[in-house]
Amino acid sequence: MTADATTSSDTRTVFRTCPLCEATCGLAITLEGDTVTHVRGDADDVFSRGFICPKGAAMKELHADPDRLRRPLVKRDGRHVEVSWAEAYAAVEAGLKPILGGGDPNAVAIYLGNPVIHTLAGPIYGRALIKALKTRNVFSASTVDQMAKHVSAGLMFGHPLSIPVPDIDRTDCLLIFGANPWVSNGSLWTAPDLPGRLKALQARGGRFVVVDPRRTETAERADEHVPIRPGTDAHMLCAMIRVLFEEGRADLGRLAAFTDGSDAVRAAVEPFALDVVAETTGVPAETIRRLALELADADSGATYGRVGVQAARFGTLCAWAADVLNALTGNLDAPGGAMFAQAAHTPAPTGPGGRGYKTGRWRSRVRDLPEVNGELPCATLPDEILTPGEGQVRALVTVAGNPALSNPHGRRVDQALGSLEFMVSVDCYLNETTRFADVVLPPPPPLARGHYDLAFMGFAVRRVANWSPPVIEPEGPDESEILAKLALIAQGMGAEAPADWAHAAVLQRVCRQQGASTDVLGEVDPTRPAVERALDVMLRTGRDGLTLDALEAQPHGVDLGPLEPALPDTLSTPDGRLALGPTPILDDLKRLAGDLGPPPEGELRLIGRRHPRTNNSWMHNIERLARGEGRCALLIHPDDADARGLSNGDRVVVASRVGEVEAEAELTDSVAHGTVCLPHGWGHGRDGARLSVAARHPGVNTNDLTDHLDLDPLCGTAALNAIPVTVARAEPATEEDPA
Ligand SMILES: Nc1nc2c(c(=O)[nH]1)N[C@H]1C(S)=C(S)[C@@H](COP(=O)(O)OP(=O)(O)OC[C@H]3O[C@@H](n4cnc5c(=O)[nH]c(N)nc54)[C@H](O)[C@@H]3O)O[C@H]1N2
Ligand SMILES: Nc1nc2c(c(=O)[nH]1)N[C@H]1C(S)=C(S)[C@@H](COP(=O)(O)OP(=O)(O)OC[C@H]3O[C@@H](n4cnc5c(=O)[nH]c(N)nc54)[C@H](O)[C@@H]3O)O[C@H]1N2
Ligand code: SF4
Ligand SMILES: [Mo]
Predict the structure, then answer these.
(1) What is the DSSP letter of 286?
(2) 257: exposed, middle or buried (Cβ count in 10 Å: 0-12, 13-18, 19+)
């Protein structure tokens, strides 16, 4: 279809960016007709240089999966049946109309899942759909993931997307808290082949340290692994900040000219003395002190944290403290430190100052939780559905999400989804969530759509750009068309209305966002689909003045060079200054100080884990990704097992405040004393789902244990780590027990 493919008879190899995770690896995909015959890493990709992981390689099976939906489904008499697109849209209109007609736009909620930001259509048209719905009940996977970092970035730098990333290729010293990049391939940190980059760091004489309650795959390779009691990283980070002040090592350097709040931070971390923090965290005082000084002494260094510390009770504090450490050691916005990405499609900053960042512009109806980034915490979506009264959510739109498995208190999510008057899902599988939908609209598979990583170029450690045109004909409309159609229906324009109107509005908005005149629309190729034209507008008005045609001629991507210091020009706080100690953060440090103290005797705290062959909940329908022994085993320290009379392989019941699951115990000293560990994304084999492979490897849903009431109050993110649990031997199964 495009010139970038090398062709021989019917066989051709195309080069594309993998859209499955944040690493943006280049793939070389061989096709015969529309059938994928081979997938390997693209050795010429300017960013990933041939790296590939098992999921990228599974693109072949994903594409061929017979359970992947090709046509829309409508639920009739409790069963999903295939229908035409016209019938499906009509069913959406029929379902939404009476609810929208009730006059309360908040009666329709929307949930956007993780893959929304892994598509080109998602970020552009997802926003259009939200606007069209006019609902305040907007939920997304962000509040089971990275919202803490958005809030700390918003409060410190004025914009929720101003998130510094470790400049891995130039750093000498990297401190990783609660992330496992060897397996996850990085998050809010786009750097394909992180294993290779971490090895290169060591080879050039640098060091990396992993703070994690589990000796993970990353920790195994680290120069030092520091086990920590789950949920106590913010305490440790504050103690490190305190060490810097106390030992006269806090130095903002170049940042001092435009940074406020250093004294307030110094005062606020006073309660975090080394001895109490050592007792709280289980990390020796001398280790905490040494790590702080090593970071200050290194020529360059960065502190980084992710899901283990951000999807947590003190997540925003962890996100903030990491950047404070970076700032105070002269490593923020410095080569080899934590730097701000500079995506080619974003306009160059025009100087410091902006609108600033606010949360709590509205609040949730039932639990009075504040809005953050235009969203409410997904942990309260079931409350909004299940609690009667004015403003109750009666209908739900899901796009690329599986809250039934990914959100806390899974059983309650099930109950809520089952009680809706109407639900429509844009999704490629009939799974644990979409089985509840009245209508399921499947997007085309990755190979049938264009891809440019709008979201993750914003966190990339190099300035690169890569466009992957569609390489096969789609089976149905593009995801941008589907979302545009839903937006038109939401606006009352009807299922029959042509999507052009929605596309025109989107293009106007993109120009506005880029601060560009709509004249640029005259320059883009009118024969391209609107979603591509929107991208072309962004590239043309972006800092590097690229065009989509120019990128299309470079199938391995273009390398625009290393990151460059960006402050103070990128600060969007109203006064154009960097806020080291924003008031909400300083206030929340009091809550943290109240949590100091040693663990109670016999405490067990549950943490999560990811496996190289998973992608949250949704790729378990591929046999070679799903199979394997002990995938859902509960990891427990031998001493903790001993204290409960457990042996390796025993069936155990893990119970929390909200629920329980049964798992097999795996005794291992890779988890710290007091820590137990289960993966998320499992719990398949539900009635009404159509996942034949996943059903054979069901596993259990760890989110049946996570607590919808246990949130980080600053960002609304659910604590998915450090869950208090008990573990006991399961009663032996009786004849009547289900298998
Ligand atoms: N293979 C694979 N890759 C993935 C995904 C996947 O499901 N599978 N998902 C993708 C997504 S959506 C994301 S957001 C990223 C996440 O990327 P990462 O954050 O790098 O991945 P996690 O495995 O969640 O790492 C969290 C780490 O925190 C540790 N941890 C748990 N609790 C605590 C604590 O209290 N303190 C400390 N210090 N550590 C703690 C865990 O042991 C774990 O090692 O991964 C992405 N990549
Ligand atoms: N206990 C615990 N829970 C967690 C986590 C944890 O570490 N521990 N991690 C959290 C994290 S980091 C995340 S990001 C969330 C993820 O939470 P969710 O986004 O709710 O769940 P996913 O498992 O990513 O499900 C993605 C859905 O998108 C569909 N899909 C895939 N590709 C496409 C596409 O191109 N278009 C459309 N329309 N649909 C598509 C899939 O079929 C699936 O239904 O889970 C969170 N939940
Ligand atoms: S690491 Fe991520 S981007 Fe790279 S091949 Fe694997 S899934 Fe795709
Ligand atoms: Mo995530």
Answers:
(1) H
(2) exposed
CA 599/CA 604 separation, integer angstroms: 9
| 9 CA from centroid of ligand 4 (Å) | 41
Q: Which two tokens stand for residue 13?
A: 């190899």
What is the pLDDT confidence band of residue 738, given thresholds at 50, 70 and 90? very low
Question: Which of these, 528, 525, 550, 555, lies nearest to 539 by C-alpha position?
Answer: 550
Backbone angles phi, psi at 504, to 5 degrees: -60, -45
Indicate whether residue 721 lines ligand 1 (CB < 6 A): yes
Helices (H), 553-598: 583-593
CA 633 to mean position of chain CA atoms: 24
Q: What torsion, rounded to 10 degrees, do the Cα atoms 289, 292, 296, 301 define?
A: 150
Would you say residue 163 has pLDDT above 90?
yes
CB 320 within 8 A of CB 338: no
Residue 81: CB atoms within 10 Å: 12
Task: Dig out the tokens for 457 from the structure.
Answer: 């170029």
Give 190-239 pLDDT, tens digit per residue.
Answer: 999 999 999 999 999 999 999 999 999 999 999 999 999 999 999 999 99
SS3 content of the chain, % helix, strand, coil (to 5): 35, 20, 50
Phi, psi dihedrals of residue 270, rounded to the nearest 5°: -50, -40
Long-range contacts of 490-493 (CB under 8 A, 24+ apart): 490/96, 490/100, 490/108, 490/129, 490/132, 490/133, 490/134, 491/132, 492/100
Point out the ligand 1 atom lying closest to the alpha carbon of residue 183.
Answer: 1
For the stretch 116-131, pLDDT in tens is 999 999 999 999 999 9
For 637, the token pair is 């320290």
13 in contact with ligand 2, CB cutoff 6 A: no
Name the nearest CA neighbour of 35 among 442, 618, 445: 445
Q: What beta strand segments (E) does 25-85 contain?
A: 26-32, 35-41, 73-76, 79-82
Token duo for residue 537: 């507008």
pTM of the model: 0.97
Q: Are strands 634-636 and 675-677 parallel, antiparallel or unpaired?
A: antiparallel
The DSSP code sequence of 677-726 is: E--SS-----TT---TTGGGS----GGGTS-TT-B-TTT--B--SSEE-E
Residue of 563, 719, 707 lying closest to 178 (CA atoms): 719
Ligand 4 centroid to residue 400 C-alpha, Å: 13
pLDDT band at 736 (very low <50, low <70, confident <90, very high): low
Q: What is the secondary structure of 649-689 as a DSSP string?
A: T-EEEEE-SS-EEEEEEEE-TTBPTTEEE--SS-----TT-
Q: Please give the structure tokens belonging to residue 174.
A: 């990297």
Beta-carbon contacts of 436 under 8 Å, excluding residues fewer than 6 positions away, are: 404, 417, 418, 420, 423, 688
Q: Which atom of ligand 2 is the closest one to the Cα of 428?
A: 42
Task: Look at residues 700, 627, 726 and name the one whose alpha carbon lies nearest to residue 58.
Answer: 627
What's the CA gap between 445 and 59, in Å, rounded? 10
Phi-psi region of 649 (alpha: psi -120 to 50; beta: other; left: phi over 0): left
- The radius of gyration computed from the CA coordinates of the chain, to the nearest angstrom, equals 25
Q: Answer for the pair 189, 199: CB distance below 8 angstroms, yes or no.
A: no
Does residue 429's CB lie within 6 angstroms of at least one atom of ligand 2?
yes
Q: Which residues line ligand 3 (CB under 6 A)?
A: 18, 20-21, 23-25, 52-53, 55-56, 185, 192
205: left (phi over 0), alpha (psi -120 to 50) or beta: left
Q: What is the DSSP letter of 159?
A: S
Nearest Cα to 549, choosing from 541, 561, 540, 559? 540
Report whether 72 contacts 439 (CB < 8 A): yes
- Pair of tokens at residue 573: 């706080």
> Which has the closest alpha carbon to 239: 209, 280, 201, 202?
280
Residues with CB under 5 A from ligand 4 (ion): 145
